[in-house]
Amino acid sequence: MSAESDMEYSDNDGDEYDYYGENDDCDMDTIDKSKSDPEYFEYSCLKVEEVEKLLNESIELLSNSLQITPSLAKVMLHAYEWNAQEIIKKYKENANEVLIYSHVKPRTQVAQVGTSRTVCAVCATNPAPNQFSGLACGHYFCNDCWGMHFEVQISQGVSNTIQCMAQECEVRAPEDFVLSHVPNARLRERYQQFMFKDHVKSHPELRFCPSPNCQWIFRACTGEGAWRVDCAGCEHLTCFSCGAPHHAPTDCATIRRWLTKCADDSETANYISAHTKDCPKCQICIEKNGGCNHMQCGSCRHDFCWVCLGDWKTHGSEYYECSRYKEDPNLSSDSQHAQAREALKKYLHYYERWENHARSLKLEEQTLACLKGRINEKVMAGEGTWIDWQYLWDSARLLKRCRYTLQYTYPFAYYMDVGPRKELFEYQQAQLEAEIENLSWKVERAETTDRGDLENQMDIAEKRRTTLLKDFLEFNTTSASSSKV
């Protein structure tokens, strides 16, 4: 038997969708986000052509300023994270230092060798003298060996960092030198694709959208930290700083630790990830088929919390106790076994809640689809227009936004040190969780007469969410800003 819900359960996996609703046609955010949204981050979504133009501007600037080839300018820009002004400044102070740091030499054009050089040090053949070439490092090899060397490197995905063939020589081969030795059109195209990807990855303001087959590229306009980016193409929600799914209020380093721990302990935690539990009153098996954690047994009508199985009446808005982890005051510091058991108990407490909200988010994708169908039915039946039902659609989107934030509060809380700051965080986390469950319950059962009550609940839930982020997101900015990979 299932708990009462309008939704059917589905375990289809999917990418992060537009939980923040900022790419929908019906945008509920009409105020200045830079002032109202603690996650606000100025960025732009660019197409490949726009990024190529941006990169070419830096290449042209450096090439003209230092009177070097565009290929050499690319090597230097890649080494200095595309800071053309810094390269120009340092070059004027000490040209050799810049060139050595970039692993290049002043003259990287093909060098023809005189008749005294007749044997290639790699293949030990003696081709015609005009078949030898090399970089300004002074290491010369036959053109066939250069071509084979480049083909192997390109096939392995190497582009910007292809080095001279001589042992322990770090001089890099610029693009024009490589292309002059690679006649295969397909391989040349592949090399240039790798070059472009390497350029984007080395540019501190650029990041590829991590979604498979998505061609959009993000450009940061200001700020540092674990900032939220919504892809204009696939609507994937990403942390610009580390490239992972957006994870505020948890910082980049902490979310990596948490995900690694979850992967390592996945077998231990498997038993808590089942989708069915027994009703705490009548013991009948119940399946969770909606995002709301406020469950009502279809048999005995008992209201309880899915997470802790406690009576729902005890889950008031003043404090949501089941979100907190209570340390054992009687734990003996001398017992390693007891400490290990307590550590596992603590981890499972946070993991269960993390995983539960992840499942709820997937179930609430079903809620959105169901709501769209319900609204269409109402409109077709003459019971109002889409505008009249807009509040219901907005409330479902806001619910996803709040639950997404709430999910990522659990890794944050798990690693926090015990003290007043953690107590404040858990209090705000509990307030947010209580309001989310109230909102979820109302969204799944809303009618036109519930508009005022639902909009009031939306306002309360969003205020809880932004208050928590304003108090704790800024706290993580410093540690997150150094996490870009």
TrEMBL record:
A GO molecular-function annotation: ubiquitin protein ligase activity
PROSITE patterns, sorted: TRIAD (PS51873), ZF_RING_1 (PS00518)
EC category name: transferase
Major site of localization recorded for this protein: nucleus
Segments of this protein annotated with the region Disordered: 1-31
Catalytic activity: [E2 ubiquitin-conjugating enzyme]-S-ubiquitinyl-L-cysteine + [acceptor protein]-L-lysine = [E2 ubiquitin-conjugating enzyme]-L-cysteine + [acceptor protein]-N(6)-ubiquitinyl-L-lysine
SMART domains per record: IBR (SM00647)
Keywords annotated in UniProt: Coiled coil, Metal-binding, Nucleus, Repeat, Transferase, Ubl conjugation pathway, Zinc, Zinc-finger
GO annotation, biological process: protein ubiquitination
Superkingdom of the source species: Eukaryota
Coiled coil (residue ranges): 429-471
Ranges annotated as biased composition (Acidic residues): 1-29
Domain RING-type: residue ranges: 116-326
One GO CC term on file: nucleus
Transmembrane intervals: none
The family this protein is said to belong to: Belongs to the RBR family. Ariadne subfamily.
Protein name: RBR-type E3 ubiquitin transferase
Naturally occurring in which organism (per UniProt): Plutella xylostella (Diamondback moth)
Origin organism lineage: Eukaryota, Metazoa, Ecdysozoa, Arthropoda, Hexapoda
